[in-house]
Amino acid sequence: MNSGAGVKRPAEGHPGQYVPRKRPPGDDDDFVEEDFELEPPEEEEEFGPDMEVDEGSLGEAGKNWPRPAAPELNPATDKLVFQQLEVDYTLAAPHATYYPTDLREVPVVRMYGVTEGGSSVSAFVHGFEPYFYVEAPSPSFSPDDCQALAGELNAELGPKDKKNPRQVLRVELARKQTMMFYQPAKDRLFLKIVLATPNLVSTCRGLFERGLCLRWLNNQYFRSTTYESNVLYALRFMIDCSVVGGNWVELPAGSYTLVPAQSHQTHCQLEAHLHYSRLISHAPEGEWAKMAPFRILSVDIECQGRKGHFPEPDKDPVIQIASLVTEFGQKGPTVRNIMTLKSCAPITGAEVMSFEDERELLLRWRDLVLEADPDIIIGYNIVNFDLPYLLNRADTLKIPQFWTWGRIRNRRCKMRDARFSSKAYGTHDFKEIAIDGRVQFDLLQAIQRDHKLSSYSLNSVSAHFLGEQKEDVHHSDISKLQDGNAESRRRLAIYCLKDAYLPQRLVDKLMYMYNYIEMARVTGVPMSYLLSRGQSIKVFSQILRKSRTKNLLVPNMKRGGDPNEGVAYEGATVLEPKAGYYDKPVATLDFASLYPSIMMAHNLCYTTLVPKGQEKHFPKEHLTISPNGDAFVKSSLATGVLPEILQELLGARKRARKDMGEATDPFLKAVYNGRQLALKVSANSVYGFTGATVGALPCLEISSSVTSFGREMIMETRKRVMERYCKANGYSHDADVIYGDTDSVMVYFGVEDTATAMQLGLEAAEEVSKAFIKPIKLEFEKVYNPYLLISKKRYAGLLWTKPEKWDKIDTKGIETVRRDNCLLVRNVVTTCLEKILVERAPGEAAEYVKGVISDLLMNKLDLSLLVISKGLTQDADEYENKAAHVELAKKMKKRDPATAPTVGDRVPYVIVKAAKGAKAYEKAEDPIYALRNNLPIDCQHYLDHHLAQPLMRLFEPILKNPKELLTGAHTRSITVTTPSAASGGIMKFAQKRLTCLGCRAMLGAGETTVCKHCKEKEGEIYQRCVLGVNDLEAQFSALWTQCQRCQGSLHQDVLCRSRDCPIFYRRMKVQKELGEAQTTLQRFDEW
């Protein structure tokens, strides 16, 4: 074990000639605010010499933290090539060599990345000026007019920017076309407004959109739509320099200068400066599809909360920080470190560092980040908990230098509250933390976006994807372990290390680094945008890139404030389902990439849209009129930007899938798979972008035309299939389209075997495809046999892609993953589906349901099956409406504040019996409390409010009278447990008397085990009790050992309180039953 105390920390940096300034807030927003005034830049914080030490002199404790030494480079003869992972900018004094100017403050692009050899790089790119466009006031606008306009704009903007002598650097004439509506080939005159700093773009844009007076043109009033004035500066740079997220860039020999190590402004190993025009960007194809060995830091922290309170950074200390550093592409971490407050026993395979002072612990961890120099920081819920907690805790302890663990020396991280809102992902509040040069990747956010699960706790997610669980120590137990000894803190450290290890395992298992880097490459945005922003910015980036190649300008459209407002349009067609249980094959025909195909086939785009009323000026053969009446020119006149983008995306996806099939290197195969998935998602996002009324470029004419063509195609497919495949044409049955949903139709051919249905499906797809314009293509993909069609958006079937063997049970809209369902519902529905679909025994499924209902009413089911779990998102007293989990949280707080749920916890509960007419929220109870006090479960509530509706939906297409499942002989026997006196109510006044262990009759005076009538059987009864205790002991031992294995030690008590784990409830139940059985056995002591 290494002691962390007293070890020197790395130097905070040395002053150099290039001095970055604070980047003003607001420029990270998707769309820059109007009339944004520059704030005065803050002075860089300097920390005293007591905090400065030589880097690398970390002693034995941190010898494996730093990267390998960077190679010596000669800028005159050696090129510098690296994979960039983050692009941002700062405001700084201009560089004398690469951007000589009289301005005092200019934007400088910063690119961070890694070389193929693993060296970290920061490249400062100079000379790229922010700009936007407006349409010229007249076709005769001259260079002299441009100079006069620049003067007028400077007069307006000067008072808002005291830094620079000029705000508008120049106004240039440009021949361009607007992207909106079909335009003849003739270019129009535009003005390119070039500005000193990016933040002036929004202010200057406001001047044009509100209107300004052109005094030198007889006071002409000029008001104009602006073009590309809502493009983020860093993204503008990437587009103009053909840089895409996560690609390789090259600084050619002779084009850059390297900064000596002693003058570095960053913590990167290599630091270079160059002019933007000399930067070479490599398309991520062929040899440039590779990945650099970038470093990933996985972090988890533990805090010691006060009794009855969730940890708060202004009051509760950070007691442990686990850090795992992994090089991408390598198996296992290169650094496995745990820092603890107070002593900790050694841990095999981990570097343990103990501190007596929390300030030292935090600063030492900051040293680890600076020395290890990670490119990406990952963890589970780090954005909303771990990282903000560390930063806020450092403020409480007055350690300003702790905030400097970004890559810019002496530069504090920035943190603010933010809200992410997207139609696809909903609205979420989160902390936005800017850590210069380091990408944050929160696994919780990524998994919530990409996967629909019943629970998103790290334990549940790990069980789902990795097939393993971890010990779940409740925050109320952490204090006991911390206040114990070195061994108890070791146990907490192992728990903390595992919480840092599991996110790395999940990243590897789900291929997140491959997939997200490929998504950044395909869409052209920095990797950091992918989690913090929605789909729109990705499509917008692609549109800007393609428009630039076609000399088109993208207008800045006014956006509404409410996504629910605006013009509504009819969505996709859903054919009325013919509900039923189909025990013969049902073929599914799907349109391949339906919406992208429609847009390509009919040339639907902003650039091909004909304004209303202008259709008469075009020959009919040159127009496509959509079913909802909008007109677009055909590709014979002009190919749209969107169809071209889609054609390139889908063509690239086809190539990526081909390359994936041919690749032999698993590393490269994963890259190609990530790429083809990213291309697919990007193509499907383009349609949604046009229909987003609050997006960057809404166009409902396009989105509504797409859905109208889709509806027409579904109806045409139905018609053609039913006309062709009928008895009149020699087929054995009349085919029937039993359901159609957006881009697919389900066809019941009436044939007996799966192979024949597949053959007919293939044939039907080929025949129907002939009726549509290319590239629209109907494909046969699968057969369901059997198929249970319940209603719109609700069905289940046994899916076959090969006639020899079925693949899986495929469901949609069935209650198997909803979080607010108890496990009983999920288990029953899943088992019924297996019996109906796999075993083809609907009758057995019905009998199974009756058996489960009988067991439920007779109280024979495991308590874990009845637990419902909901999250406490705010303080219980702040909820306006009464909810079961909220009222229970209040109740539990009165009983024991130390263990009561707090904000952020999930509250598990069961519904217990209560007075007649009691509301559901009044009947919610803690499962463990109900178990210990024998509180009777309200089984009828579970039957009526949880099981009944899913079972009715499932069996309605199968049984003539599905309600018979809920009534009848199997529902007449009900068992109710007798509550204990501790449960309150009338039981407080009940007197406890012993009963005979044989016949349950009341025992008389002097009798302790059996009555006089059962005396002859006392030995047999005793033997039965002994066997019962032995059986329960074996059960408890097995469950206990299972939990010990999960926690990683067979020699320590189990502290896990994972309410997501059914074993937890079984263990508690068996423990209680064992205690009662042992008490019963003790009655024989005097026998």
UniProtKB/TrEMBL annotation:
One of its GO terms (biological process) is DNA replication proofreading. Residues 225-461 form the DNA-directed DNA polymerase family B exonuclease domain. Its main location: nucleus. Residues 1-63 are annotated as: Disordered. It comes from the Eukaryota. It is found in: Nucleus. Residues 525-958 form the DNA-directed DNA polymerase family B multifunctional domain. GO terms for cellular component: delta DNA polymerase complex. Pfam families: DNA_pol_B, DNA_pol_B_exo1, zf-C4pol. Its EC number is 2.7.7.7. GO terms for molecular function: 3'-5'-DNA exonuclease activity; 4 iron, 4 sulfur cluster binding; DNA binding; DNA-directed DNA polymerase activity; nucleotide binding; zinc ion binding. CDD domains: DNA_polB_delta_exo, POLBc_delta. Residues 27-57 have a biased composition (Acidic residues). Residues 996-1067 form the C4-type zinc-finger of DNA polymerase delta domain. Its cofactor is [4Fe-4S] cluster. It catalyses: DNA(n) + a 2'-deoxyribonucleoside 5'-triphosphate = DNA(n+1) + diphosphate. Keywords: 4Fe-4S, DNA replication, DNA-binding, DNA-directed DNA polymerase, Exonuclease, Hydrolase, Iron, Iron-sulfur, Metal-binding, Nuclease, Nucleotidyltransferase, Nucleus, Transferase, Zinc, Zinc-finger. InterPro entries: DNA-dir_DNA_pol_B (IPR006172), DNA-dir_DNA_pol_B_CS (IPR017964), DNA-dir_DNA_pol_B_exonuc (IPR006133), DNA-dir_DNA_pol_B_multi_dom (IPR006134), DNA/RNA_pol_sf (IPR043502), DNA_pol_B_thumb (IPR042087), DNA_pol_palm_dom_sf (IPR023211), DNA_pol_type-B (IPR050240). Belongs to the DNA polymerase type-B family. This is DNA polymerase. The lineage of its organism: Eukaryota, Viridiplantae, Chlorophyta, core chlorophytes, Trebouxiophyceae.
